[in-house]
Amino acid sequence: MRLNSSVQRSGQPLFRPVLNVFLGAILVAMALVAAPGDGVAKPVYLPSSFADLAEQVLPSVVNITVTKEVPRTGGGLEDFLRRFDPRAPEQRERPLPPRRRSGGGTGFVVDAKGLIVTNNHVVEDADKITVQFQEGEEYDAELVGTDPATDLAVIRIDPKHKLTALKFGDSDKARVGDWVITIGNPFGLSGTVTAGIISARNRNIQTGLYDDFIQTDSSINPGNSGGPMFNLDGEVIGINTAIFSPSGGNDGIGFSIPSNLAKTVITQLIEKGEVKRGWLGVAFQPVTRETAESLGLDEARGALVSSVTADGPAEKAGIRSGDIIIEYDGKEVNARQRLPGMVANTPIGSKVEVVVLRKGKRKTFTVQIAERDEDKIQASLGGQAPGDRDEVSVLAMTLGSLTTEVRESLGIDEDVEGAVILHVEPGSHAQEQGLRRGDVIVSVSLEDVKNPEEVVARVEEVRKEGRPSALFRIYRGGNYFHVTISFDD
Questions:
Q1: Is 482 a catalytic residue?
Q2: CA distances for 401 relative to 187, 382, 406, 445, angstroms
Q3: What whole-number distance in Å separates Cα of residue 330 and Cα of residue 385?
Q4: 151 noted as active-site residue
Q5: Which of 39, 286, 309, 464, by CA, is between 20 and 30 Å from 86?
Q6: pLDDT tens string 80-138
Q7: What is the value of pTM for the model shown?
């Protein structure tokens, strides 16, 4: 012990000056970094607390609970029990009574008289919607309007007193690295506040035509859907809608709908109960580096027109297949300014200038934007109305074929085969497992499938083998993962 003590003491006189010099060098370096000047970084100030901000906005964030009747599909234990039911055969064959499912998410007040914004997937097909405030007040809500394309919805309550509405901020001013806080109801834990930064902008996660998400590392979990993302001024700059999580929980990658996109949709839902969008009349694909090189372009930019709808706005203006749209209404078309969103937000009937590259030469066309009519568009693309398309239902999911148009709109590679999920029933086991519109089922219980019919056939094979569930391999955004879906849904 004495030896050790002497060593420690003998070391202190030599260590102190070295430590002092080291700390001094760090302080000098920090002072140089913090000092203002050309080419020198300005000091970074971290907020000491988010408490004041949270206290200000929490009363306007609500928990949303929905209930829905889900038809029973039978199978598994239910089929076994019915087989040995002592009642008459005709009674045994009667349809099973529906099962009530409950789910939920988050919303926030946008109007003092009771208008609340949330996600479409939170309230879609709900039989009953209940809103609960942080202090415990509960109200029944009615649906005002939904927009599945952007996953937004507006509901209305009749409050007993005037509410405090939150204000939208300018999401275009939000920068990567900015502080944000998110509030929601993860796993039923109401009023949960989390903080983080904006990790990326303009993310396309291949859920639809209008993908343009803000990515954040602020914790977002199941139940946060529809909740607000705030900047440090207390303004809503995003609406939480999705997470990337092979584990099913928070992995530090969450996505929010930018407020500037949401405001246009929400205004239309409140005023009209539906959303009308501009339509150009082209199918297109991004210009990749390989495409740019093959066309002799200096850089990969713009949208390559793959087809033009007959008698549509673009064809009438003179735009052809093979043109590369590089400017739309005075704005450059690139990864940050995606063409679908630009066209969708254009007032119907207005005239815009569209600049294209045709065989390397710039050409300008004036296009009168029409209204996007999904029925007519689908009919022109496939010769069928939406109700007649190649769709099947299985395990509370609606599946469709991977057509050329679907691949282009969702950014799905040609070498991916399977069936695309068009709709997932709220409250179903498939939704609980995280499946959503735009996912592609590529195999069922370790056997590859190429279309919706093969998915249904394979599910029935697995069911007849007496298994309680099927294993689905899913493609999403360039990645693959597995989920298990129970037959007792």
A1: no
A2: 34, 12, 8, 20
A3: 35
A4: yes
A5: 464
A6: 555 555 555 555 555 555 566 678 899 999 999 999 999 999 998 899 999 999 989 99
A7: 0.65
